[in-house]
Design goal:
- Strand 3, helix 3 and strand 4 form a beta-alpha-beta unit.
- By secondary structure, this protein is α+β, with helices and mostly antiparallel strands.
- The chain has four helices and five strands.
- The longest helix is centred in the N-terminal third of the chain and has 12 residues.
- The structure holds tetrahydrodeoxyuridine (THU).
Length: 136
């Protein structure tokens, strides 16, 4: 599956505008490329009961999985404090990495962006080596 990195990052930037993050003031957008060619976006959605909130990456996966998608090739994410430009690369939290491992192989691409032009690419295998699974 050909990955249009710029398009994926653009979608993550748009999704970030819809983040609901009044408690952390940290706004994250994610764009997930399914093997169907469709892009599904997500943003972080916080809650007054803090642990109830959900990360942008899992929001994007939930949207895609709910639409029937099961195969994925890449996700782009961008996150930072509200206002101004994003200064630092943002990486998926441990819970999101484990969530991804349920549906994605180790060559799944994770693109962390500061802008359309500034990004880093990793594989899920690099960010989550030796993930948990129930195979014995
Ligand atoms: N967050 C994400 O959306 N993705 C991550 O991978 C890490 C953290 C969100 C959760 C919370 O709303 C805010 O960033 C600060 O932790």
């Amino acid at each position: 599956m050909e990955i249009d990195i710029n398009e994926l990052i653009k979608s993550a930037v748009v999704a970030r505008k819809n983040a609901y993050a009044p408690y952390s003031d940290f706004y994250v957008g994610a764009a997930l490329l399914a093997d169907s060619g469709k892009i599904y976006t997500g943003s972080n959605v916080e809650n007054a009961s803090y642990p109830v909130g959900i990360c942008a990456e899992r929001s994007a996966f939930a949207a895609a999985l709910s639409a029937g998608e099961r195969n994925f090739s890449a996700i782009a994410l961008i996150g930072g404090k509200n206002g101004g430009r994003v200064e630092k690369f943002c990486y998926p939290c441990g819970m999101c990495r484990q969530f991804m491992s349920e549906f994605c192989k180790s060559d799944f691409r994770i693109i962390s962006a500061k802008s359309e032009k500034e990004y880093e690419i990793y594989t899920l295998g690099e960010l989550l080596p030796k993930c948990f699974d129930l195979d014995v």
